[in-house]
Design brief:
Elements (H helix, E strand, L loop, with lengths): L12 H5 L15 H24 L11 H8 L6 H16 L13 H42 L8 H26 L9 H15 L17 E3 L6 E3 L1 H10 L1 H23 L4 H27 L9 H13 L4
Antiparallel strand pairs: 1-2
Helix pairs in contact: 2-5, 3-10, 4-10, 5-6, 5-9, 5-10, 5-11, 7-9, 7-10, 8-9
Length: 331
């Protein structure tokens, strides 16, 4: 089994490095974990793994946009992955390799590159836990937005203008709380910028508010015609009460109909985002598996690659990690 293969489909580290694909599992060319690492390093030299370490410390994505956590997490859904066998082999040879006082495995062909790889793994271990905390919070916020949409959809033609204004504003406030909580994390460089599930959630909910077809059959152009719109710069929801009042005055039944169309669509979108097997839950499930996997095999990884530099999270990463640790009872 080659180091280049992590899940049953074959996650190829060499593709990150511009090298050749590793032999398939069970092939005559397959070798044990330690030998594969030595052969790979001999072929690509230390610069290749340095590239891996520097690129992976960013978004955590492999070639073609695949995310390491999703690939490894998915690979753990059906029994042991290929990495289980690799780590088992590593554990078998770690006693003879030994780790130097500087944390390097001096039995390797290129201990410095292996050390950098372990530094990368240490950083990933922290980043995945922080992301899991953020995605759990996002799931809760999406549920809150779904409930606010349902409440807004409870108005009818018997509801007074003041009540309708209050419910529209309550929905806008909930939407803005969501954006203020995650807006910076979804921007380039943010903790969730490279997380597809988070980006899809932001886009889907924003598009639901901005959809111009709610109420179209009655001559309305979506929620903007009722005074609720998304600021193109801040991405926050704003409410124009004068426009809302005018729409209610000129055709209350049409305005309420548009509200009902919008809230049903928005609530359904939020429900789907949080549903089992869909974006947010899938990401959380994969993160849970990859976190457990790295934690379980950390000793074997360090025995093979060296200790690596410990992760030193700061800012939102450190805060999210602390939230994760508190939620899971980790001191």
């Amino acid at each position: 089994m080659s180091i280049n293969q992590i899940n049953s489909k074959g996650f190829d580290f060499s593709k990150l490095q511009g090298g050749k694909a590793a032999p398939a599992a069970g092939s005559a060319d397959a070798v044990d974990f330690s030998s594969a690492l030595k052969l790979q390093m001999a072929g690509i030299q230390s610069q290749a793994l340095n590239t891996l370490a520097s690129s992976a410390s960013g978004s955590g994505k492999a070639a073609g946009g695949a995310n390491f956590a999703d690939i490894l997490g998915a690979g753990k859904t059906s029994g042991n992955s290929a990495l289980d066998a690799l780590l088992g082999s590593a554990a078998g040879v770690s006693g003879t390799n030994g780790i130097s006082a500087t944390g390097r495995n001096m039995a390797l062909f290129d201990p410095e590159s292996a050390y950098r790889m372990m530094t990368n793994i240490n950083a990933r271990a922290v980043a995945y836990k922080a992301e899991s905390s953020e995605m759990s919070d996002m799931k809760a916020y999406v549920s809150t937005l779904q409930q606010e949409a349902i409440k807004l959809g409870g108005v009818d033609t018997s509801s007074g203008s003041e009540e309708i204004r209050a419910r529209v504003q309550a929905f806008a406030d909930a939407y803005n709380a969501w954006m203020q909580r995650f807006g910076s994390e979804l921007k380039d460089g943010g903790l969730l910028a490279g997380t597809q599930a988070a980006r899809v959630a932001q886009w889907e909910l924003e598009q639901s508010v901005a959809n111009p077809f709610h109420g179209a059959k009655d001559g309305l152009r979506g929620m903007a015609g009722l005074g609720l719109s998304i600021d193109p710069v801040t991405k926050l929801a704003t409410v124009d009460n004068a426009r809302l009042d005018a729409a209610l005055a000129s055709g209350k039944s049409a305005a309420i109909g548009a509200l009902h169309e919008f809230t049903a669509h928005f609530a359904k979108a939020a429900e789907l985002l949080n549903s089992a097997g869909n974006f947010i839950n899938n990401r959380l499930d994969n993160l849970s598996r990859v976190i457990a996997y790295i934690d379980t095999n950390m000793t074997s990884l360090q025995a093979e690659f060296g200790l690596g530099d410990p992760a030193k999270p700061t800012g939102q990463l450190a805060k999210a990690l602390a939230n994760y640790n508190a939620k899971h009872g980790i001191a």
